[in-house]
Amino acid sequence: xxxxxxxxxxxxxxxxxxxxxxxxxxxxxxxxxxxxxxxxxxxxxxxxxxxxxxxxxxxxxxxxxxxxxxxxxxxxxxxxxxxxxxxxxxxxxxxxxxxxxxxxxxxxxxxxxxxxxxxxxxxxxxxxxxxxxxxxxxxxxxxxxxxxxxxxxxxxxxxxxxxxxxxxxxxxxxxxxxxxxxxxxxxxxxxxxxxxxxxxxxxxxxxxxxxxxxxxxxxxxxxxxxxxxxxxxxxxxxxxxxxxxxxxxxxxxxxxxxxxxxxxxxxxxxxxxxxxxxxxxxxxxxxxxxxxxxxxxxxxxxxxxxxxxxxxxxxxxxxxxxxxxxxxxxxxxxxxxxxxxxxxxxxxxxxxxxxxxxxxxxxxxxxxxxxxxxxxxxxxxxxxxxxxxxxxxxxxxxxxxxxxxxxxxxxxx
Length: 413
Ligand SMILES: C[S@@+](CC[C@H](N)C(=O)[O-])C[C@H]1O[C@@H](n2cnc3c(N)ncnc32)[C@H](O)[C@@H]1O
Known about the structure:
N-utilizing Substance Protein B Homolog, Chain A, Rossmann fold, eight-stranded mixed β-sheet, 15 helices, 12 strands
């Protein structure tokens, strides 16, 4: 029997919480647990698993009084899904309980736990959910952020993360996109739906890109005809912006599969760029008027779109990333013509991948300056004293927030 959306959601949760896999990895794996699940069911499963991961702490709190002994992970995930569906998704309890019992009955060596699942789900009070604070970030991330911005800001970020992310679109000049126009020029679509079904998708009038991410290319302010390198470019949101602004773009990334997506995006939107598969640290493409460097990072600014991240990452890779980011900055600066500019950005909340990288780059390169420029919709308070732009998920909280990002524009003397 083909797996339905609930079964697929539990399989996703098992892979994230049991095997430390990211949701995208599991969904893209042709031999993974979701192989053969029809697209609509997969999409619903992804949405449900995401909702559970955003509310796992509360679900466990609500379930705890009724579980003297912790059942196997897959049964816990069935219970968590049921509680979240009722309390957060507003599903009818009767159908949810019936489905949960059914899943456990037909599961791998879980049939003997149907009675427990039935009894627990009939006792829990999903209303108890409402009084609980939003799920906290893991301590390795939360602690430094509380030190930096205080508890209130961190709680506001967590509230935005729990609500999930709307869909932001960057619009090709002269075209239109559905949704609400944001102050920085992106369009925001709320509510679930298939991206490819939105008006203008086939025509390539817009592409999906978080509103905060879209500010990096704006900060670079390219003009038509400039030679621009987009380093670490795939899947290409920023390449599309630079190409749409009329620059001659060379897009470089180390990952061939991700560059495949970049090429698809260029083709759909009728835009052009030279695409190079290479390690930026080894690549020599001559000199450029401007460079955009979107360096690999902890991606801790994207938790509202990637609720699996806090359960898979533990911060152990950050030191190596910080080293790589500094090497990439130095390489990118070396590609600039005299007087050229480089925008460095990361979708990280952590200062070592943002503010501290700016400070260290300025110290390593005498004559280098950080430039602050006017960007429509960017509030003065988002700039740091050193001339970087710190974007936090709780900015525009009432509208659904934005990704956390740090970006800075550096000019070579
Ligand atoms: C944050 S993502 C880039 C997102 C992209 N700029 C966009 O706007 O769609 C970071 C990218 O860096 C690439 N990458 C990591 N190390 C690299 C290296 N040494 N050389 C080139 N690309 C690298 C990864 O493959 C990944 O696609």
